[in-house]
Amino acid sequence: DALRHLPADVELLIAGEGPLLGDLCAIAAPFGDRVVFAGQLQTIGALLASADCFVQPSLDEALGGAVIEAMAAGSRVVATSVGGLPELVDTTGEVCAPNDSRALAAAILVSLSQPAGRGLARAERFSVAKMVEQTSAIYESSFKPAGANSVGP
Predict the structure, then answer these.
(1) Which of 21, 55, 102, 126 is deepest in the core (most CB within 10 A)?
(2) What angle do CA 30, 34, 36 make, to 5 degrees?
(3) Distance from C-alpha of 1 to C-alpha of 59, rounded to nearest angstrom
């Protein structure tokens, strides 16, 4: 619905498939070729890197792995303020209220005026290597070496 509030030259590419694809195609029909369905993709990195903006208009979201992928690819990011998305996006992208197509359109326009790549460093904080490093540090700090100070049988 946000597409109704955006300039006519803004196009939407939807990647993925699911049980609601038919409903989504019907909703998109009035927009003609402004909406493209890419289907299920094996790799999405190149698509994310070439997109002008990645939009995650979730109504419910825990963390947002797709947002992390988009930030890591250098995409501009727009997400709704649900779950962990506001903290994840922080100041590197745009966040708007869920279920508000005008707010989403406005956030997309602001995002398109910003430089790409703002989320690259933030995405690094959520990389597998960084998570392993941080988890290992927690485990290492939690274990005390056996010795004179230990109490035991």
Answers:
(1) 55
(2) 100
(3) 14
116 Rama class: left (phi>0) / alpha (psi -120 to 50) / beta: beta
Residue ranges of E strands in the chain? 12-15, 35-39, 54-56, 77-80, 94-96
Question: Can you say how many angstroms the Cα of residue 20 is from the centroid of all Cα atoms in its chain?
Answer: 20
At CA 116, angle to CA 123 and CA 134, rounded to 5?
10
Q: Which residues contact 143 (CB under 8 A, 6 or more apart)?
A: none
CA–chain centroid gap for 98, Å, is 14
Tokens for 152? Answer: 């035991």
**Which tens digit of pLDDT belongs to each residue from 49-106?**
999 999 999 999 988 999 999 999 999 999 999 999 999 999 999 999 999 999 999 9
Assessment of whether the complete model's pTM goes beyond 0.90: no
Q: Tell me which residue of 93, 138, 87, 147 sits closest to 115, measured CA to CA.
A: 93
